[in-house]
Design brief:
about 300 residues; alpha/beta; Metallo-beta-lactamase, Chain A; seven-stranded mixed sheet; five-stranded mixed sheet; 12 helices; binds zinc ion
Amino acid sequence: MNTFKTTMLSVATALVFFAPNLASADNHHSKSPSFKSTQLTDNIYMLQGKGGNLGLIKGKQGLLLIDADYKVMSGALKTELAKHGGVEKLNYLINTHWHGDHTQGNFALGHHAQIIAHDNVRARLLTTQEIKLFQMVSKPYPEHALPSLTYSTRMSLHINGEDIKVVHFPNGHTDGDSVVFFKNSNIVHMGDHFFSGFFPFIDIDHGGNVLNMAKNIKVILGMVDDKTKIIPGHGPLSNKVDLQAFHDMLVGTSAEVKAMKDKGMSLEKIQTKGLSKKWTPWAEKSFFPEKVWIGIVHSSL
Ligand SMILES: [Zn+2]
């Protein structure tokens, strides 16, 4: 077992406590499952439940949903969709990546919708996956809950008067990430390439990497403008300034960890010394301690 894994496992117990806070930390607080809906245009909405943020577009050609939250949220999600014509109108569901807080809703929605994702999402969901950091195991999904329409680099959908571009950005959060652009409405759903205002989880064991994520976000920053509404995978509705700050945090914290590593410091020493104080607000809002973030960065270098 390498040091990264040892360190990650040593905080696993703490994370069992911390992980559920991922849901409520920057999303909304609720006892019985429900969604907070934010209307972005005449027919596009951001939905916030327990897991990753969702995007919804409605119109004459039915509903298209981006991400599907946890299984436990499926009842509430159907209730939410009922406000927009009902789950029967759901024609497309895009999975931005394979993680359960974005895809478990496939079980309930896959009977209605065509599920779209990057090739690697289907490959992952076909087999057992494990995220050691969260002691989480994902069993193979049944056929109806798997993406049936997959792509390798990019694809386009033209529905409800909107040009929707689904673009793969390689090896950022995972090995199968999609970012979804609503070109006409100037809205972007980032998937988990963006945790707005706090340290992100990056799935190193499944192809993620901090440096690639920063590189990908730099490309996306060149594709958006000051008026773009940006839906992060986790956190509140954001804009280009927020995304730039997230990018700068990824670059800045990586540089600090690299500088200490280059001096010959061990991961444990770097974790004990910690990052400079300016990143404390990011750490305070995160659902895991700063030393876990340092471990993720260290293993990406
Ligand atoms: Zn994720």
